[in-house]
């Protein structure tokens, strides 16, 4: 099997399964999705089961391999696909786990194999049943794109930019999309019964709708000024620290810096150092990167990379604010239009929710189409708004804990933050709490699981002194021996 090397275009030997035969009783003849990143690929995969023909429009020219491209600059940074997101992805593209494995990904139990330092202590490590793919975002997107390309009723139109919506004369219904080759090439209009915007946080749907006479969509922004600096390293041979990945999280809001080392395909590490409220690197400087890593709450990340071989430059990314567009609240909205992914809601990336929430929305869109295309936009935007509630609350509770971060604190915010902090302390030594936390974080269990009577009792009687302060990550071999002995 061909493998990815950072500066070569290669083709993977994937099983090009035609997983979705075109629908026998389609909801409609034609759908268009514009924006060919993760949300767009998943939405197009879902729609291929409901429409005779689906066209995916992407402004970039897709590279022939897991290569970076202009429209997705974040792809060179750590990306974790949560278990829930992976489950949905595997529902859209059956067999994709195996395809990812063929491309070098490994599915690992996150609690067992990641050494996590959070809330001032090392988390217990054990087999939790919560697993995630150890894979770079570049390979993930590339594998998903190949699966979409293999669907018989999907056409991919890359190198085309969506320029505006085509509507019915009374503007109550979107009937197509205007396209152009970027840079002012020839214009073209495609007709469709459903147009889906997956063009990311810079989506121009709010302006397009306003120009068509619709109200401006309300937007909530939480200014977090998060900065990422990421670099890929070769995993040093013989380095056996007892963990596969490493996550050093700050105690919010007292600390602001985070460090993550993600084990990715082909014996590489993707290392991120960053922080909230401007506490991040502003230049891609080798010495400053290492110095930042050295300043993290624990030395393990620095120790791992200080003599490791970098495989490329340092990439920087500045994320000014989380952004939630309240399409669900609009008093009027055209038929035939849906917004999925970051175009609807773009989360602080540190919480790793974007792709999974996009997957949940894509899945919901499919469910709304079971009753037909008519009314689907309306059903979908309300459902999508509901889907966002939980992840948005989870992400913003952490961010709003910083007194400097502006934004409306919901009623009971102080109590929730207090409970959340105590829960984190509990997860420092209690396996049940740690498992619950991992399941909630990976969206396979509702946050209410953290509030069961049993958990509340444990949280109220938490003993922070019981958490591991010194031993750091335990070798896997030791854990396995303990488990079997
Ligand atoms: C630094 C960083 C780290 C992140 N880490 C994680 C993580 O760990 N886990 C996670 O789940 N999520 C993470 N995210 C979020 C994740 O990247 C997105 O949620 C994910 O890419 C899905 O976004 P999307 O497809 O909606 O939009 P995007 O990924 O932004 O893609 C939009 C696409 O639309 C195209 N496009 C834009 N305008 C047009 C147009 N007019 N016509 C045609 N095409 C157009 C672009 O070229 C691009 O391909 C992170 C984000 C950042 C910034």
UniProtKB/TrEMBL annotation:
**SUPFAM superfamilies membership:** FAD/NAD(P)-binding domain
Task: Note the InterPro entries from the entry.
Answer: FAD/NAD-bd_sf
Name-wise, this protein is FAD-dependent oxidoreductase
> What organism is recorded for this protein?
Archangium minus
